[in-house]
Amino acid sequence: MTSPIELVIFDCDGVLVDTERLALRINVELGAELGWPMDEREIVDRFLGRSNASVNGQIAERLGAEAADTWEKRYVARLNEAVDRELTEVPGISEVLDGLDLPYCIASSGSHEKMRRTLGVTGLAPRFTDRIFSTTEVARGKPAPDLFLHAAATMGFAPEVCAVVEDSQYGVAAARAAGMRSFGFAGGLTPAEWLAGPQTVVFDEMRALPALLAAG
């Protein structure tokens, strides 16, 4: 028998704040500028849901360390500018949080600095206060389970009663590795088939999430 869900762990980018579309556009630009042209699908496959260290490692392997450093600096500057100018929350997420009667937190591949900015711009920061966890706090990023296990343990919940809301293939893989149920949000950039798998419910409308969580 499946245990009832007691804690909801949200990814940040693409689940709470609509940063992924901005990041995708910027990475397409940078790939063309720096010698690694990629289309949107390849960038989603390689980068979406991965830590900065993982992305930088891929770029360094392809283009060299100096180019990877240049890519990162330009990316951060352009993303910060785009976030301040045009970032919005994921449609429906405030309604979901308003109606959620379970404890919840964030566990993201992004840094705390990045989340302070994105959650601040969208007005979501007060909803989470000290319940924000970053991959910088653990040894391995997604798809390893470390971050989700760290978040659950800090919040005081066993993995089997946790549900993870993710929008990347690496995020749902990390949830499965942690022994948690996952809810794969396909309303963003990741194709639904990339999210599907064991212990995973795939959905494409954020406002549907409360009913899905209630169903377990």
UniProtKB/TrEMBL annotation:
Keyword Lyase: no
NCBIfam families, per database record: HAD-SF-IA-v3 (TIGR01509)
Protein biosynthesis found in the keyword field: no
UniProt keyword list: Hydrolase
Taxon lineage: Bacteria, Bacillati, Actinomycetota, Actinomycetes, Kitasatosporales
Protein name: HAD family hydrolase
Pfam families listed in its UniProt record: Hydrolase (PF00702)
Origin superkingdom: Bacteria
Species name: Streptomyces spiramenti
MF terms in GO: hydrolase activity
